[in-house]
Amino acid sequence: MAELFDKKSSDYDNWYQTPKGRLVDKIEKEAIYGYLKPRASMEILDIGCGTGNFSLELARLGVKVTGIDVSEAMLAKAREKATQEGLAIKFLRADARKLPFGEASFDAVVSVTALEFVPNLADALQEAYRVLKPGGRLVVGLIGGNSAWSRYYEAKAARDPESVFRWAHFPTLSELIVAMPGSDVQGKAVLFVPPDFDFTKVNEALALEAEAQRQGRTDGGFICAVSYKKRTDGN
Questions:
Q1: Are the C-beta atoms of 142 and 115 separated by less than 8 Å?
Q2: For residues 71 and 79, what is the distance between their CA atoms, to the nearest angstrom?
Q3: Spatial contact of 67 and 94, defined as CB atoms under 8 Å apart
Q4: How far apart are the first and last CA of the chain?
Q5: Could you report the per-residue pLDDT of 146-191, keeping only the tens digit for each?
Q6: Alpha-carbon gap, residue 235 to 231, rounded angstroms
Q7: pTM (2 decimals)?
Q8: Which stretch of DSSP H or E encloses residue 175?
């Protein structure tokens, strides 16, 4: 698996320079930050950080970020970008299924479009929850199953034997919520703009997105959930 992501590292960031990539990134980040609520001086672990999209943005906010990924090539890109911006971020090669941190190490843990690739989602989420401090929050974003986007990536994988999506599992929102550890869990779906939309029409895309969210649809291409870890006093 790491080798597949290593091969994608050289052009991975090109996605964010396209109209589609920019708008998708905006929609996903709004959903993640709505739950994560990052603040300066927080210690946040970014699981599956890739080339550092979320890690760098969090660091710009004054967050103390640690990013982990299985791909050393992706991490090299992330380190290079952090150095260029003068951002102090710890980037480590590690497996989400066995994090090299003690219990209660972070104020928050975030993972975006990474845990689709672990064999057992619930186990990986429990491991992320383990390193979370009491009173902290675990925020996870994934490509949503039974959506236009999951079908798009499944078709892509069927055409390309080297596609990383051949190894992905796309849970529905209800499946993600069930898999989240803890008793205080919330979730939502976003990204209802289909992948074949003309993403240069930003206002039309945002209007479509807003209407789908107003309707309370759960079949979005991006699903997001948060679990709040209770303090020892029960709060």
A1: yes
A2: 12
A3: no
A4: 40
A5: 999 999 999 999 998 888 898 999 999 999 999 999 989 999 999 9
A6: 5
A7: 0.94
A8: helix 173-179
